[in-house]
Amino acid sequence: MNSISLNSIQIPRKLKIVRNVQELSSQLKDILQSLGYWSKSILWVTGVYNSKKYLESIVKELTIPKPDIYVVGNNDFSAVSNLNSVLTKNNKKCIVSVGSGKVIDISKYCANQLNIEVISIPTTLSNDGISSPVSVLMDHTNKKHSLPSRIPNAVLIDLTCVLKSPTRLLRAGIGDLISNITAVKDWQIAERDIKEDINDFSLLTSITAANYILHLYELEIHNEKFIEALARGLILSGISMEMSGDSRPASGSEHKFSHAIDNLFPNRALHGEQVAVGTILSSYLQEGDWRKVKSFFTRFGVPVRAEEIGLKDGEIISALLHATHVRKRYTILEKVNLDEKMARDVLKRTGII
User: Fold this and answer.
1) Binding site, annotated residues
2) What fold, for 9-163?
């Protein structure tokens, strides 16, 4: 087991889950003042439409007369260059990032490059990037890259705001969080088969994150208690990656499957939707309780079939076979070494096709 120095990991100094914009704004003001940042030293980064409206409601509560607001269009390297230029030119010391995963990812990445603070205020819960040290960015060919970024100094979540976000995004967040189950199992397989180092603290944190929602089967997806548990689980999942120093505790064979889809058949579904289907497959191959996982997803409307993530039978077979080639990481896929006949059989047995 790796040794861990508590001084070598960073976690958000503050996590607050509140129920309205007034409470969130009050918490944010305290954080900014404790950091010594206010007004002109802050760049407010957001997306379009609802994210921008919510940011405007925050700055109104804080009575900031002329806030410097930057609207992110895409999460590609061109956008990174533009945002870095604005931050440097205006001598900004802190980013307050208000929006979806795309907005928060680019904010964390730029903060890391410039060594400045970033505060995460997600307006939905579609993945664990709200608190992780990883950002997903697109290159000029629309290929996704997972890159090191700065873990947020603080994470603030307004449940009322999140509950208004599209249900599809919340379902994607469920898929991303539950996938920790198979990611952790893959890590344990790698430890046993190829003697890969495992970080037990990180592993425990990751599986605890998934368990935040796994026992809430009887609740509805828009239940406040469920959404708060989803938020806490995703935050904890992000922190597990900081503890391990990479994405290993929250990204295994199910994520390799999702990356394969991105490579071969881009823009068919959301990341968390693809990962959910991959989690069922991985759990089956790992001889886990895949039926329980599938039942949980079905209960909350998370995709469980190829057609629900925009793939035909032949396409999902190709993606599954391609998954071993997208990242050099030992998982159950490397252990079983599927061929086309085996892949089709697994997909049929799990009801994915």
Assistant:
1) 101-105, 123-126, 128, 132, 176, 255, 271
2) Rossmann fold (3.40.50)
List, in sequence order, every beta strand (DSSP E) within 19-158: 42-46, 69-71, 94-99, 117-122, 134-138, 144-148, 154-158
DSSP per-residue letters across 109-146: HHHHHHT-EEEEEESS-SSGGGT-SEEEEE-TT--EEE
Does pTM top 0.90 for this prediction? yes
Each domain of the chain, given as residue ranges in start order, spans: 9-163, 167-349
- List residues forming the annotated binding site for glycerol: 128, 176, 255, 271
Provide the annotated binding site for NAD(+): 101-105, 123-126, 132
Return the CATH fold of 167-349.
Dehydroquinate synthase-like, alpha domain (1.20.1090)
Type of residue at 3: S
Q: For 122-143, how does the pLDDT look when each residue is reduced to its tens digit (9 = 90+)? A: 999 999 999 999 999 999 888 8
Instruction: Evaluate if residue 4 carries a pLDDT over 70.
Output: no
Contacts of 216 (CB under 8 A, 6+ apart): 225, 226, 229
